[in-house]
Amino acid sequence: METVRDRNARLAEHLEGISRRGIEAVNNRQWNHLADPWIHYSRGHIYDPQWRNDLRATMQGQEHDGSEREPLQPTGHNFVDFERSIVQISPEFHVHILNVDTTVLDEEAEHATVMVEAEETGVPPGVTRPCMAALNFRKLDGKWLCTMLRSVAGVDLSSSSGG
Questions:
Q1: pLDDT tops 50 at residue 42
Q2: Are residues 54 and 153 in contact, defined by beta-carbon separation less than 8 angstroms?
Q3: C-beta of residue 43 within 8 angstroms of C-beta of residue 77
Q4: CA 131 to centroid of chain Cα atoms
């Protein structure tokens, strides 16, 4: 007989898998918004840009570097379009996943949060820095969908000396 813990463990694995596949799709430049993993992201998915002023500022500097870029045709899927714009401006952009963990899971409230610890490379080119991302999931029409991603640049403490 399935216990609540068993059900939650399976759901946590499912949501963590969606989170991993979303990052892999960005790294592999898979933009078909009608296929996995994007079918698990709500069409109105929000990437909260106020959380990444560092990323936006760097991209704005690169956007005005004099390079000609072909305009992107919107897919109608907010998150896919945002990620495509990052890659168009910063073709070296890549995310290396270090850890994925479900930190909030409330099946009754139909809400979950998956945390991703990663390293981003390529914004700006040649720079790698740690980052943390929180992916919020909601159960909508019987299906778990990622509805918001908040990401913040981390602080690399590996090179600092202890007290």
A1: yes
A2: yes
A3: yes
A4: 10
pLDDT tens digit string along 84-116? 888 888 889 999 999 999 888 888 889 999 999
Q: Which of 138, 127, 28, 34 is nearest to 83 (CA)?
A: 28
Q: What tokens appear for 105 in the block?
A: 């899971």
Amino acid identity of 107? E
Dump the DSSP string for 67-123.
---PPPPP-S-HHHHHHHHHHHH-TT-EEEEEEEEEEEEETTTTEEEEEEEEEEE-S
- The string of pLDDT tens digits covering residues 55-64 is 656 656 555 4
Fold classification of 4-65+72-153 (topology level): Nuclear Transport Factor 2; Chain: A, (3.10.450)
Q: Are strands 128-140 and 111-121 parallel, antiparallel or unpaired?
A: antiparallel
**What number of H helices and E strands is found in the chain?**
3, 5
Instruction: For tokens 């700006």, name the residue.
Output: 124
Query: How many CB atoms sit inside 10 A of residue 120's CB?
Result: 22
Token match 């704005």: residue? 60
d(Cα 4, Cα 35) in Å, to the nearest integer? 30
